[in-house]
Fold this sequence. Notes:
Distance between the termini: 39 Å
Strand order of the largest sheet: 1-6-5-7-4
Oligomer: single chain
Radius of gyration: 21 Å
Amino acid sequence: xxxxxxxxxxxxxxxxxxxxxxxxxxxxxxxxxxxxxxxxxxxxxxxxxxxxxxxxxxxxxxxxxxxxxxxxxxxxxxxxxxxxxxxxxxxxxxxxxxxxxxxxxxxxxxxxxxxxxxxxxxxxxxxxxxxxxxxxxxxxxxxxxxxxxxxxxxxxxxxxxxxxxxxxxxxxxxxxxxxxxxxxxxxxxxxxxxxxxxxxxxxxxxxxxxxxxxxxxxxxxxxxxxxxxxxxxxxxxxxxxxxxxxxxxxxxxxxxxxxxxxxxxxxxxxxxxxxxxxxxxxxxxxxxxxxxxxxxxxxxxxxxxxxxxxxxxxxxxxxxxxxxxxxxxxxxxxxxxx
Length: 338
């Protein structure tokens, strides 16, 4: 069993070959036969045999910057979500992990074990990346690049006026789970302990890959609303397709616990980071069939609005509420985020 060094004994820089093999390279996710050269000492790049693959390679990259608890699993999830929105099956993953010296080797060990297990769950092979101990940052820098394989491609250019948007689950799903895990002290001002535990458990249900599979033959476009939340996600799609958006209701679907926290902490759930929610653009005549598929699987889903020529009733805005909420000082003053 590897004995972890104390933080002040961990040298800055790349890990030694022994530590790299033990903490990183031995945790390579699922084994895929087409990975000819994977992450090994002395290898500068991965080699993947694509001779049997027909279709498209779909590539996405995302960091995790707002969470610490469960960061490794979340890193895989948000990157799976991005390729899933393009109709792809996630296959290969690369990880960059810059860990502060103050965190020690145990942080690297914990994060890589989470990443390894999450990748195994989705048959993803970890094919490379970079791991380093640094004294330049107080907080970890964790970023991933996911490569998936798809048989078709989605484009925002296919969206037309009257196309509807189906939304799964509820707004601020990821943001609330981050608060539940990293800042339960804030939520304690608003929610009971059992309610905070429920919110924290939402971190186990942030992957939209299963939902995307249900819509591959129906959707014209799919989107994962991360920073900026559901309304920010609609803003991004609207800008891409050059259309406005009419929301059918005055608000997007919000869980009652999120509503309580939003009122207490004064934030807009529609603009809080919302991985775990899927936004899918559909021809209007396909909306009911899509809803029936989700009902059959017991997944919350709702048609929330439609694209329109002109400005619509949703002002385009990409503001993100999580950072301001995380920065709240319980003394009643808001801190200043550097």
